[in-house]
Amino acid sequence: MTILLTFAGNRDPIAEDTNEEGSIVTLCRWLYDHGEAVDQVWLLSTDSQGQSNANTTRDWLTTEHLFQADQIQMLHREVSPVDFVAVTQFVFDTVQGSSSSADSGHDHIFHFNGTSGTPAMKTSGFLLSVAGLLKGGQIWTVLNPQHAQTTDRVGTQDVRFLKEHMLRERIATAVKGDQFQTAIALAREWGEITVRDTVRETHAALIGVLQAYRAWDLTDFGAARRYLTQVDQMASLPWSHEGRDAFDRQRRWLNNKTLESANENPLNLVELYYSIERYQEHERYTDALARGRRLLEGLLYYYYGTHYQADVRMVAKFWMKQLPRDLTQPFVDYAERYVPLWVLARAIMDYGHDTTLRPLALDIPALNHVMDLRNQSLAAHGMQPVTGKDVATVRPLLRKWLVALVPQTGEYLKQYPLKPVMRRRVLFDLGLLPSKV
Questions:
Q1: At what angle do helices 364-379 and 341-350 cross, to 10 degrees?
Q2: Partners of 113 in the beta sheet?
Q3: Is residue 85 part of a domain?
Q4: Alpha-carbon span 121 to 124, nearest angstrom
Q5: Each residue of 159-199: pLDDT tens digit?
Q6: Which CATH number belongs to the domain containing residue 57 in this structure?
Q7: Residue 72 pairs with which residues in a beta bridge?
Q8: Sign of CA dihedral 306, 308, 309, 310
Q9: How many domains are there within the chain?
Q10: Residue 51 falls within a domain, yes or no?
Q11: Is 379 a domain residue?
Q12: What pLDDT, in 10s, does the model give residues 388-427?
């Protein structure tokens, strides 16, 4: 059953100053003419004047054959018409009471006339709508004929732009925190409620990019590549030059299949470095140091593999013979074991032929200390937390080692396309707030 819920105002059923029908009769006539089915009208009043207006309005609706008398209910409660709480309680009780009426087996859809009555009366419908108690219906408004053409007087009070604004803010905040799953859910909701054509046009692309960034953050580079390829195939996206450039650079980065290689290479080592940066930004310091240790391992594995074709992941006796004789000295005692990380590092600095690496030896005590903090934190189940200062200490050293041991990474570090500023540029073109993402 569809019900029009309305207070009777001083301009119902006829406004004395314009001699035009008031909002209730105008709205009922418009709904009838436009095939909007309304089964009943419930006329509410809060004082004697309102009750008189409601009675007159009922008579006018029946005389004009818009409704029959048994389709109109009169509901009165003696309260102050400007008391927001009392008036809203009246409307709330009316709506809630419908669920226990004789026809409670029927679903009720409530439309609300947000034009007639005092500000308290008009606002009461909005409050119930926000609370989710007027499901399925609309808040209607009827403009004064002095301010609108007859054909333009009736419309819905659609303020979804307020919810859109809040959703847009929340999506941007989620993206800033790398909470992409949350951002995707919010973006879907935004697309469902939007009143903006531009949002409808970019909605699928925004979700596609967010899905790509989520996959990228989870190191599922193949999925990220597929999502960005799908977005690239969409037509008529409002790319700026900067946004398109950032988007294309992200696609080119993901299209390099060496990123997904199980073996260390300059590309995935740089990706690993930037994951440490993201963990630090989001205060996941123990995870950041864990990634730092993984990066150190990867750098040393890559260096030994590239320079000596030695897979130092294996027990030392299987690869020592591939080293120059003067470099085997640090590993003699480890023939039947795996060589510790810091022994591998110290060896190439003290015994290797590349003298440019020797200054890195000064960093080893600091790196060793900070990585021990990570191990102690894990052993103590987080009772000895790693701090932001610890990660801030280690990150410049990791970057220096990255460039020193794998010089090819220098350009990749400059070109990395998922830095916040480049991500922000892409998402801004797809509708998010530039200052928030």
A1: 180
A2: 140
A3: yes
A4: 5
A5: 667 788 888 999 999 998 889 999 999 999 998 878 777 88
A6: 3.40.50.10770
A7: 41
A8: negative
A9: 2
A10: yes
A11: yes
A12: 999 999 999 999 999 999 999 999 999 999 998 999 999 9
DSSP of 275-343, one letter per residue? HHHHHHHTT-HHHHHHHHHHHHHHHHHHHHHHHH---TTS-GGGTGGGS-GGGSGGGGGGTTSPPPHHH
Structural element, H or E, at residue 73: strand 72-76
Strands 40-45 and 2-7: parallel
Given this model, what pLDDT does residue 12 score?
86
Q: Is the pLDDT of residue 105 over 50?
A: no
Query: What token pair was written down for 197?
Result: 């054509």
Percentage of the residues of the chain whose pLDDT score is greater than 70:
93
Domain holding 292, by residue range, is 283-406
Tell me, yes or no, whether 191 lies in a domain. Answer: no
DSSP structural state of residue 153: S
Of the candidates 124, 143, 158, which is a domain's last residue? 158
Among 119, 137, 158, the domain boundary falls at 158
Euclidean distance between CA atoms 403 and 199, whole angstroms: 43
CA distance 59 to 61: 6
C-alpha pair distances (Å), 403 with each of 20, 64, 160, 341, 353 = 80, 85, 51, 18, 17
